[in-house]
# Entry
Amino acid sequence: MLSSFFFLAAAEDGADAGKAIALALGIGLGSLGAGIGIGNIFGSMIQAVARQPELRGELTGIQWLGFALTEAVVFYGLIGGLLAYVLV
Amino acid sequence: MRRALAIVTLLALTLPSFALASGDEETKFDPSEEWNLHTWGPELKIGPIDMSINKAVAYLMLGTVCSILIGIVLMRVKPGRGPNRRQALGETIYEVAQVQVAEQGLPTKAIGRWFPYVATLMVFIWTINILGFIPLPLSDERWHVGGIGIPTFAIFAATSTLSVTLALALMTWVFTHIEGIRENGTWAYFKSWIPDVPKAMLPLIIPLEILGQFMRLISLSIRLYANMLAGHMLILTFIGLIFVLENVFLAVIAVPAATAFYLFEVVIVVSIQAYIFAALSAIYIGSAIEPEH
# Structure
């Protein structure tokens, strides 16, 4: 299923090309959003620690929680893309 | 020592792909083949439930044994003697589980009852995740040496199958509602789902809140599953590129890239996902015991 992912799927079949586009869009747009979100989290963390260094310990837990929650968004896109690729 | 470890890791990463290359030359390389679970031994079926053993079950059993060993070796220390490194490590794990996971989500009165559950979740998921990045001879492919089929070394995590993570998420989900009903009473608990909004908004809000409870189940399971699946697939795909495009020189790019992803997964993702799963379980159970409204 994924081996045609490496070669250009368009060469084989038009429908495969559509699926490949769906997979790529799912991952690509998902990572776009998550990239902005994760950048925001770490940027805010740097600012917060620069202003109040004594809060670092308490903030670290919240930071990783936010990181994991945001990062998961990519994988919802990935799973959606894979579903489109495999099932449709 | 550290350099030797790095070289061993690098070599270990290429092992699964050598196994694939030594197989049938006609078959195309396909990373998703790793997730086709073949039954080992006889099929054990109890009614509609399939109880037969496959690769994921073997990894789960191994993970169970290892997490029990972590508890026994690191945390059962005779009192009286001076603390050693083993005890210090055990206490670090305990402290993370208590301060970072349990006390963040659970109210004080519920810590005694639910701390064992969330701490077990954390250690268990961490163990399965880390076992998924150690090459173990538990793969479905056989390497024939003198007529004996030896399983090839491969990396596979039980948490990269949806059934495992969904079962873990279901446990948290069921416990959440049982605990909410027990502490607040049935009517009061279900009423606490609905926030204070004008009456006209209620037909819109109530279905959304009920849907939100089910979305927790989905997001909790998919997060862990997709993280581990994507990590393994990335590593396999990078190594596999050498064999798909049949060009040895690609190894110059593919192997360092795969190693970088491998280190990222082992150092960050494995621990973060175990922590997140346990912390969110604690938050969900805690918010059911003491609803804000």
Chain B has eight helices and four strands. Strands of chain B lie at 45-46, 49-50, 142-145, 148-151. The first strand of chain B starts at residue 45 and ends at 46.
